[in-house]
Specification:
Layout: H1 2-11, H2 26-31, E1 37-39, H3 45-49, H4 55-58, E2 65-67, E3 71-73, E4 75-76, E5 79-80, E6 87-89, E7 100-105, E8 108-113, E9 119-121, H5 127-132, H6 135-148
Parallel strand pairs: 1-7, 2-7
Antiparallel strand pairs: 3-6, 4-5, 8-9
């Protein structure tokens, strides 16, 4: 199901209005305003439609990129997988890069793999217990709680 959904996101074409000049990208410009993005979505919509949408322009120079921190890109013979790619957790400690908007997928993602090669996707019951067993997701949960407790969080 996730593969079909993710493939569909990759096939989406941007809306074009020829002759009307540069078009605003409302979703990009809205999301670029935030210091971090937290989501429960496990698909790759934002990876395919937001991250490479001209974020430097959309954020008025604030963000060079948007990434999920703590992930390493998987390769086949030195070549990355086709978009949206395939990723696995790095070893801790995890960090957030300057001028890179952090994007936290609190339940993992359909294109993440654990060290054993299985999908790193938290679903069904006992999510908290399942997250406890994954250092990266536990750190994401801590970041969420920390940022949510700051003044003016939204």
């Amino acid at each position: 199901m996730f593969n079909t959904k993710n493939q569909g996101f990759g096939d989406l074409e941007p809306v074009k209005n020829p002759g009307l000049g540069p078009q605003p990208t409302f979703v990009r410009d809205f999301l670029a305003r935030f210091d971090a993005i937290f989501t429960l979505n496990q698909d790759t919509f934002l990876e395919q439609q937001y991250i490479n949408s001209g974020l430097l322009d959309g954020s008025q120079g604030k963000w060079f990129a948007c990434r999920s921190p703590g992930l390493l890109e998987e390769n086949i013979n030195g070549t990355p997988y086709a978009p949206p790619g395939l990723f696995r957790p790095a070893d801790s400690p995890y960090t957030i890069q300057d001028r890179v908007q952090p994007y936290f997928k609190l339940h993992g993602s359909s294109h993440w793999r654990a060290l054993n090669g299985l999908s790193l996707l938290i679903m069904a019951e006992n999510k908290g217990t399942q997250i406890d067993g994954v250092a990266l997701l536990d750190w994401y949960r801590t970041e969420f709680r920390t940022r949510l407790s700051k003044p003016d969080a939204r």
